[in-house]
Amino acid sequence: MINEVMDKCNDTVSYPSTQPTFSEWTLGRHLALRLVEIGATDVFSVSGDFNLKLLDQLIAEPRLKVIGCCNELNAAYAADGFARSRGVGVCVVTFTVGGLSVINAVAGAYSEDLPVICIVGGPNSNDYGTHRILHHTIGLPDFSQEMRCFQTVTCYQAVVNDLDHAHEQIDTAISTALKESKPVYISVSCNLPAISHPSFSRKPVPFSLSPRLSNPAGLEAAVQLAAEFLNKAKKPVLVGGPKLRVAKACGAFVQLANACGYALATMPSAKGLVPEHHPQFIGTYWGAASTPFCEEIVESADAYLFAGPIFNDYSSVGYSLHLKREKAIIVQPDRVVFANGPAFGCVLMKDFLSALAERLNHNKTAYENYHKRSVTYGDLHKCESNEASMVNVLFQHIQKMLSGDTVVMVETGDSWFNCQKLKLPEGSGYEFQMQYGSVGWSVGATLGYAQAAKNKRVIACIGDGSFQVTAQDVSTMLRCGQRSIIFLINNGAYTIASGIQDGPYNVIKNWNYTGLVDAINDGEGKCWTAKVRCEKELNEAIAMATGEKKDCLCFIEVRVQKNDTSKELLEWGPRVSAANNRPPAEPSENLI
């Protein structure tokens, strides 16, 4: 990933031509230059007394924009969203109270293989080892608590509390984030950012890491075995998984599909990674929640190659997939596993898929079987002016809004299932967080993505329960002049939780959502809100959002009935519930 990130910004990044004075050779300046170099031109922050000097140094770099957020959780969600577009994101918060607030979002970025650089303003360097008790701590003289909490959700941790090692620590942390495509943690003592040091006297040498390479012998053996296995099959299929992103293998996967002619599906968490306009694309494979006929085609295949899958309880619909181990080849970013055979390590996915494309016979049987079964969907459901707006009507209209200039941001909830049915046109983006599934993620992620991809218009689909968790940073979207379209789907409940197990704990207090957004705006920004209850009002709101108000942040509250849910959620929920509620296994009588 690091070299791809660098390719994006090498043409635009230039260092000051004049030699800085010694007083300008500061830790903060070096960090700012590094962030600009890797393309993290926007930093999402919440100020606190331990990071103020650092923020001063970052603000002093004219090519870096420091965006103050309403809370730390949203700042890190925004860094997550920014990283999905630019390849890396950054948040800056204060010690412990800020750091522990962002850790949930950092964990989500870890699960999604996103290089988010979490920078924390730490204690004064003189306080380390003194056994003093500081504010913003739990009252113990041990300052390592925050760092220890980050150890399991970051791939590298640096505590910068002396200038002699700061240059190396900062550069190692940033390069490790890009190399591993995982978050890192950097704590910088609050008294160090504005202090000069000889190690910062030269402009930074650009990052360049050696690319990972496949083991040639292992690659050849894996390709040979896979080709023999797949060429014997009568109706093989390809299924793309979410690890295609981190493996940088999306292009190689399409190359393979072009060469072999197999039916091409994606797992739900890989939507947007495989072009849906591809002539062999058959939809989302999600067990009982699959798009029409996709489940039948995949599970009836006599061989399937999964590229970058994650088989968890959600993606497997409560472990209910009807897949046979002996039919599968599982390709991970650096490993190929034959389910009833050997495994080959040190084989990169993109190398394997590209080489395999040259060895496979053309076989369109599975796709032809799908084509015979596929049907055209009927007309939109029409509703009367006094009828609650139907969820399927909403998403049929969202479908018409999509283009190569849009990105769909999907919140955890029933939108997972409704948005899977959207057909993405060429160039249209799609983002959601399925592995971690943190409710409220999409508000901050919409902020970050819109800031990174100003040539795209974000269309966010957010449930009312999720919005209540992180609503504040609509304020930051307005401050940044963003023009996203937010569909707030209001049914008065945590719908996805109700689909798993209904109960009074899933019912939420209704808000005046459009009134809230108008109050946040307070007449200062470009903002337009609407409340719709039927298809006619929805049509009018979308026309306004895409026409007269196309340069505004548009917030459209869609009122739906509590029981107006997708049929896919009704299929998925009980199966996940059954997996959650399995009784304890009987104790084994065996010693081992």
Describe the structure.
A seven-stranded mixed beta sheet has the order 9-8-7-10-11-12-13. With 592 residues, it is an alpha/beta fold. Helix 8 (216-232) crosses helix 12 and helix 14 (391-401) packs parallel to helix 21. The two termini are 43 Å apart. Strand 5, helix 7 and strand 6 form a beta-alpha-beta unit. Mean pLDDT is 92; it is low at 376-389. It is built from 22 helices and 19 strands. Helix content is 36%, strand content 16%.
Low-confidence stretches: 376-389
Oligomer: single chain
Q: Give the averaged pLDDT, no decimals.
A: 92
Number of strands: 19
Biggest sheet overview: 7 strands, mixed
User: Between the first and last Cα atoms, what is the distance in angstroms?
Assistant: 43 Å
Order of strands, widest sheet: 9-8-7-10-11-12-13
Helical content stands at 25-40%
Structural class: alpha/beta
| Rounded Rg | 25 Å
Condensed summary:
This protein is 36% helix and 16% strand.
Question: What labels would you give this structure?
Answer:
6-stranded parallel β-sheet, 7-stranded mixed β-sheet, 592 residues, 22 helices, single chain
Topology, element by element:
Elements: H1 2-10, H2 27-37, E1 42-45, H3 52-59, E2 65-68, H4 72-86, E3 89-94, H5 99-111, E4 116-122, H6 145-150, E5 157-160, H7 166-180, E6 184-189, H8 216-232, E7 237-240, H9 243-246, H10 250-260, E8 263-266, E9 281-284, H11 294-299, E10 304-307, E11 328-332, E12 335-338, E13 343-345, H12 349-357, H13 365-373, H14 391-401, E14 406-410, H15 415-420, E15 429-432, H16 441-452, E16 457-463, H17 464-470, H18 474-479, E17 485-490, H19 495-500, H20 513-521, E18 527-532, H21 535-546, E19 553-559, H22 567-580
Parallel strand pairs: 1-2, 1-3, 3-4, 4-6, 5-6, 7-8, 7-10, 8-9, 10-11, 14-15, 14-16, 16-17, 17-19, 18-19
Antiparallel strand pairs: 11-12, 12-13
Helix pairs in contact: 2-3, 2-7, 4-5, 4-16, 8-12, 10-12, 14-21
